Amino acid sequence: MSRERYEQQLRELQNDLLRMGAMVEEAVGRAIQALKDQAIDVAQEIIRADDLIDRAQYALEEKALTLIATQQPMARDLRSISAAISIASELERMGDYAEGIAEITVRGAGLPLLKPLIDIPHMATLALQMVRIALDSYTHHNLEAARGLGAADDAVDALTDKVQRELIGFMLKDPQSIEQATSLLYVAHNLERIADRATNIGERVIFMVTGQITDLND
Q1: Partner of 216 for a Cys bridge, out of 11, 139, 141, 150, CB 3.0 to 4.6 A?
Q2: Pick the CATH number of 3-210 from 1.20.58.220, 2.60.40.1740, 1.10.600.10, 2.60.40.10
């Protein structure tokens, strides 16, 4: 295989990863909007569409492993291909979190929201910004952007703490709110985990570029 064809396949792998990232971003965004609108039909669509994200991960992994087996890439190329496999796994789990949020919407069908959602959508916005930054840092080998994900994750963690305190307050004041408050706690947890996984991608990017293992949550 010519070097030109090999580099084209590396670009295709990167593009597959970015398409998968776009699928995940859409799923998370729609899941939060469905929760706000109590749109059961949209939530059910998100649940069904999770299989598409799963299949995208498997297809990308197969393509990456084929490249490794046939081209035996060295050093930086090998780290880039390995990073794509790892990042795809992180994105697949984010898709699962979106599915989990959609399932909460379905289970709560017919019940009014405990309160207007403000902080949770803000958490989603911050987490998805992190995902976009993480994928952009992979595409452009941007170490500064990757390292900045640690501070961004701290902002999401702070919002998570705020939401948890507020929802626990609801439960203490009104035991009848426990079920709905618990569901919203689960939503906040899923968004926090999306941010954590975006940070994991940043750590993988740093390793890909430098070969150094970094913990952005220190």
Answers
A1: 150
A2: 1.20.58.220
